[in-house]
Structures are given as C-alpha cells and as structure tokens.
C-alpha cells in the first residue's frame, strides 16, 4: 500500500485525465475510461497481468447485468416511439389538463415518457408538440419545454432502465426496487421545481427566446400500427410497477413461494421482457407485421451499444481502484474528514459532470469512487439506494457547452447560447440540487 498522498494524487490525475481526454481531445469515453483504468493500475505499481485481470473482472461483472437491462429498455422505447404511443399519451394528457394547466400536464408527460425512453429520443419526439403549444398559446416555447425537460432529465438520472442509474446501482449493489421507489420520491419534486415552478417564475423575463417552429422529421422512418392511450400507458408503467411490487413484497411478505414468484417477475430482466412482449403482442394484433416490430427493436439497440461499452469501461476503472486498495484509502480519508458519503457522492459526480459533460460518465466515475466507501460503511439497502440517487443528482447539475443535451435543447428550441444557459442550465442545476436535498431528507428514515 502506497502513501495516502500518492493515492490521492493518482486518483486525482486519473479523473483529470478522463476529463481532459474526453473534453479537449474528443476521444470516445469508452476508450478513455479503458486507457485510464489500465494506466491507473500500473501507476499503483500493480503487475500488468493483475491490471488486465481487474479490468476484465470489472467490465465482465457489470456488463453481465447492465447490457441486458439497457438493451431491453432501448427495445421497449423503440416500440413505443415507432407506434406513436408517446405522442398519443402526450396529446391525451394535454386535452385533459387544458392549455392553462399545460405545464403540469407536460411535467407528467416528461416523467412518464422519461421512464422508458432515453432523454434525447423522448425530447425530439415531443418537440413538435411543444412548438405547437407555444404558437397556439402565444407563449415562449421555453415555458412549455422546461416542464418536459425536467421530467425527462430526472427520470434519466434516477430510474432504471436508463444506463446511468443501472450502472451505479450495479457498482454500488443497490436494490432496484428501492432505487425505483426513492427515485420517484426524489425525482418528482425535483421535476416540479425545475419545470413548471421555475418556468412560471422566470419565463417572462427578457432574453428567454421566442416561439419555435416544429422540426422536420424523417418521413421514411418505420411506423408501426397506432398504439392507443391505454396500451401506451400500460407499456410504460409495467416494468416500474413490477419492480416496485417486488420490492414491497420483499418487505411485507414472509419467505415462501409467493414472495419468490413476485421477486422473479419483478426482476428488471423479467419485467422488461414482459413489457416488450406485451407491447409487441398488442401491435401485432393491431396489424403490425411481426418482422417490422422485430426490425424496430433491432434498430433501437444501436444507440444502446455505446452506452453499454462506456458502463463496462467505467466498471473496469472501479475494479482497478478496488484491487489497488486506493478505494479503501479514499474511504478512510473521507471517514477521517467526516464528509458524509451522501455529500461525497453528490459532489464528486457534480465535479465530473461540470468538467466533462456526460452524465453517464460522471455517474460511473463517481460510483467507482463511492463503491469502497459504501462497502466500508456497511450501509443499509435503503441508504445505498439514496447514495445512488445522490450520484444521479450530482450528474444532473449545470448542463452546459460540453454536454450534448445543451446543444440539443438549444437547436430544437431555437435558442441562443445565452438563452439556453438562462433556462436549461439553471433548470438542470435546480433539479440536481433538489434531488440531493430530497435524498438527504430521507436519509434519517431509511
């Protein structure tokens, strides 16, 4: 074991290297994390064979679970997108709420749609709806966009099957049912504050942009038979309900066959498989050829592949820290400094997020540093889930020019850089901070 100051120096340099290589040199995060994992192991004086073994072990153990969850989640999202289920759900809720209460309806839409769909996919799908509302109501588009963005962002950071929370949960050993439960408890208030509340307070100030014209969509994209409101809602909520039911059953039911059966059905693998099969069956019954539905699911796997690789490389970095003993030393120093693990998780994720932009990379990096601390502290399952929530909160703050989400929002809403800073960057910071505050409030009760 080397001196603590050298441990901190190597860990600090490794994080700095991730930031520099991704942000300045524009290298892929997957390649960067692998390079840094290998270099960090060698810097700690480990034999090359042991470093390679740690990288193989970390990535292999993580991908065995994460790849399946992310892949199934992407397939479910692809079906809901191509069938028009997302648009159907959005329009029905808006009709029910009316234009005056549209920001609250849009927050509900953002949360519901954000459960199965990746942030960028869901936002692009909903932009025409936001633009139409803006023109019809005579209000700036950001007034309607912020509630949707807040809902999408919080779900992307906190709930499975999104890659960030899945990766952190796997690295920290969090219970997925508790993660889903506390993710909703912490995420919904954060979405409300960053969405309709923030938009209501400040949207009338100067420099917030104007109206947005709906972007042109790819008319050649595959379209499935329409999915009605009820089935779209069921398809989105089935995985979450099954996972939450398994978590509750594990607490209230005695050991036995019933609890084991519910736990099996509520496992993320089974819950997502059942949701995909259910939506596929409804679409086929409605006239969609089975081959077309299969093609949509296959295409949806393409963007998920890169995320899976990034998560695996981040897990390799984590394993190197554990095998080298650096994680334990960092854990001891944090304990000596009396910095609460919840605050450490939030701050380190926030630092990496601000420095290099990617929320997923920030979450994976922070989880790698937090994993030994969580293990040493012998936290309860509820508190491990809240540490995962805190990591998601830190990885959500201060989206700016090094984040692809910043440019996505700017371009699709027709904003300038300054207008995007005033709206989206501030909203993301409010949401991330509110998530952490909610997790801190729950800490004493779990």
Walk me through what this model shows.
This protein has helices spanning 4-23, 29-43, 48-82, 85-97, 102-114, 119-137, 141-158, 163-172, 176-202, 229-252, 257-265, 268-285, 290-324, 326-337, 341-356, 359-377, 381-394, 404-413, 417-443. The chain has 446 residues and is an all-alpha fold. The chain has one domain (4-443). The radius of gyration is 22 Å and the shape is globular. It starts with a helix and ends with a helix. The relative contact order is 0.15. Residues 213-219 have low confidence and may be disordered.
Please give the structural blueprint:
Layout: H1 4-23, H2 29-43, H3 48-82, H4 85-97, H5 102-114, H6 119-137, H7 141-158, H8 163-172, H9 176-202, H10 229-252, H11 257-265, H12 268-285, H13 290-324, H14 326-337, H15 341-356, H16 359-377, H17 381-394, H18 404-413, H19 417-443
Helix pairs in contact: 1-2, 1-14, 2-3, 2-13, 3-8, 3-12, 3-13, 4-5, 4-6, 4-10, 5-7, 5-9, 6-7, 6-18, 7-9, 7-19, 8-13, 8-16, 8-17, 9-10, 9-17, 9-19, 10-11, 10-12, 13-16, 14-16, 15-16, 15-17, 16-17, 17-19, 18-19
């Amino acid at each position: 074991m080397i001196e603590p100051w050298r441990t901190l120096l190597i860990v600090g340099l490794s994080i700095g290297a991730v930031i520099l290589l991704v942000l300045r040199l524009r290298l892929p995060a997957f390649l960067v994390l692998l390079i840094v994992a290998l270099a960090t192991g060698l810097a700690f004086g480990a034999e090359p064979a042991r470093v390679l073994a740690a990288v193989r072990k970390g990535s292999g153990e993580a991908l065995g679970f994460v790849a399946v969850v992310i892949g199934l989640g992407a397939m479910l999202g692809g079906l809901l997108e191509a069938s028009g289920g997302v648009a159907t759900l959005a329009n029905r809720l808006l009709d029910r709420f009316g234009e005056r209460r549209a920001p609250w309806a849009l927050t509900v839409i953002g949360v519901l749609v954000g459960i199965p769909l990746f942030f960028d996919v869901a936002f692009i799908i909903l932009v025409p709806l936001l633009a139409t509302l803006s023109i019809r109501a005579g209000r700036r588009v950001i007034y309607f966009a912020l509630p949707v963005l807040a809902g999408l962002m919080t779900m992307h950071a906190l709930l499975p099957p999104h890659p960030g929370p899945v990766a952190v949960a796997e690295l920290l050993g969090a219970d997925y049912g508790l993660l889903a439960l506390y993710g909703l408890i912490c995420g919904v208030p954060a979405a409300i504050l960053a969405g309709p509340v923030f938009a209501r307070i400040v949207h009338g100030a100067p420099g917030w942009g104007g109206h947005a014209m709906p972007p042109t969509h790819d008319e050649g994209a595959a379209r499935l038979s329409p999915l009605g409101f009820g089935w779209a809602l069921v398809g989105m909520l089935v995985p979450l309900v099954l996972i939450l039911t398994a978590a509750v059953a594990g607490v209230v039911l005695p050991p036995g066959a019933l609890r084991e059966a519910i736990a099996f059905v509520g496992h993320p693998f089974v819950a997502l498989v059942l949701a995909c099969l259910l939506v596929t069956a409804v679409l086929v019954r409605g006239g969609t050829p089975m081959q077309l539905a299969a093609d949509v699911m296959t295409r949806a796997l393409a963007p998920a592949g890169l995320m899976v690789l990034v998560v695996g490389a981040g897990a390799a970095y984590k394993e190197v820290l554990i095998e080298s003993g650096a994680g334990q030393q960092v854990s001891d120093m944090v304990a000596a400094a009396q910095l609460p693990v919840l605050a450490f998780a939030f701050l380190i994720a926030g630092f990496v997020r601000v420095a290099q932009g990617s929320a997923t990379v920030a979450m994976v990096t922070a989880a790698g540093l937090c994993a030994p601390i969580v293990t040493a502290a012998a936290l309860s399952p509820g508190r491990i889930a809240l540490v995962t929530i805190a990591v998601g909160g830190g990885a959500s703050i201060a989206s700016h020019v090094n984040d692809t989400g910043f440019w996505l929002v700017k371009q699709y809403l027709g904003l300038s850089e300054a207008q995007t800073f005033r709206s989206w960057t501030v909203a993301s910071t409010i949401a991330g901070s509110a998530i952490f505050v909610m997790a801190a409030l729950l800490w004493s009760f779990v």
